[in-house]
Amino acid sequence: MRPLLRLPRVVLLTLGLAAAQGGAEAATPPPQPKEGPGGAAYAGQTVTKRALGRAGAVTFAFYAATPAPAQGRPVVVFLHAWGATNPQAYGAWIEHLAKSGSLVLFPRFQEVNRTRPADASTLAAELVKDALASLATDPEAKPDMTRVALIGHLAGVPIAANLAAHATETGLPVPRLIFGAMPGGIARDDKARGIALHDLARIAPGTLIVTVIGDRDARAADLAARRLLREASGVPADRKLFLRALSDDHGFPALSATLASPAGNNTAYDAAAIKLPPEPPKEAAPRDPKQKPPPFRWSADMALTGEQTTLVAQINAAGTDSLDYLAYWKTFDMAAAAAFAGQDATALKNNPRFTDMERWSDGWPVRRLGAETPRPPAERPAATGTAPGAAKPPARR
After folding, report:
1. Whose CA is closest to 164, among 182, 176, 147, 181?
2. How far apart are CA 2 and CA 72, in angstroms?
3. Which helix (H) or strand (E) holds 162?
4. Whole-angstrom Cα distance, residue 322 to residue 184?
5. What distances in angstroms separate CA 94 from CA 19, 61, 258, 269, one per listed residue?
6. pTM of the model
7. Span 172-183, average pLDDT
8. Cα–Cα distance between 372 and 206 in angstroms, integer?
9. Which of 30, 139, 160, 187 has the fewest CB atoms below 10 angstroms from its CB?
10. How far apart are CA 86 and CA 64, in angstroms?
11. In the chain, how long is the greatest CA-to-CA distance?
12. 248 within 8 A of 254, measured Cβ to Cβ
């Protein structure tokens, strides 16, 4: 008789678990907003896709196939992660930006297995400068040089910061916004692998800097974001913002704020389908037969590590979900509007819509973004007992 008494309890427990799982699966994440920041009010537009430059040094340009406004289009420079050189991997975000009215430039600053990280920032600056020069008089692209924003993903974030630090001397327009998603790939020192940070204290004080990280594999991105914000010492604290996107498994599919989550594949933006313009015929110039071109020198940091290869595969396979619409696209749209209007980060932080992630289909709120204003570095008290004129110890980085 005892087994018969236990049977209903087991059945009830099983039914209860099934009901709980069914309820969780029934809740779907919020879709893309119909309008507003991150929204899809542009339904029905098409995007012009162009390749500028030459093979091995190409910048892709994207903008809505509609007449440019009188003031021109705001410029968004999209700087890819190390190894993710095909705009297809970010096609969903690029399409949103282009259809929303921006001129999007995607400089391919890396040839995998041929480009050193140490050269990437210089190459990116040259590509962006040449692309803007090519489009300066184009009535359809019509870049507005007074409204420039930089988006970086992973290694693209320190490159964006370097571009901003040297904008004036390289002839680039000074960006109004740096938006860094999952910062990474920063070299620890001159001998370490990665992107070396330049003197970020030279970033213009009027720049708005927003970094956003996720809560999955977060430690490296957290440290990199805080280092970037700290070293951009010329920018006041009220123009900096540190955001954290949080994963949420309340419903299905779950939202996972990984390093690859800002990417979103769209095959319509495959680089192979965007043809380069024909190169002009080269004039026959006298060539010294004894003079040979410099030999190509390979170095180990040109190749992707196993971890980088895995991450690039995740980036290339990434889809789009509520994190894209609300944590990345919406926050960038709002930050760009604030930056172009001359506002600081305080207005964004105090706007409840900025960190709101809306609700699951059953009404349960999606976990909000965390927003934090980084504290300015504390001044260290003078050391006691130090002889006058004695050398001070170097500051730690």
Report:
1. 176
2. 80
3. helix 156-165
4. 23
5. 40, 10, 19, 9
6. 0.86
7. 98
8. 19
9. 139
10. 20
11. 103
12. yes
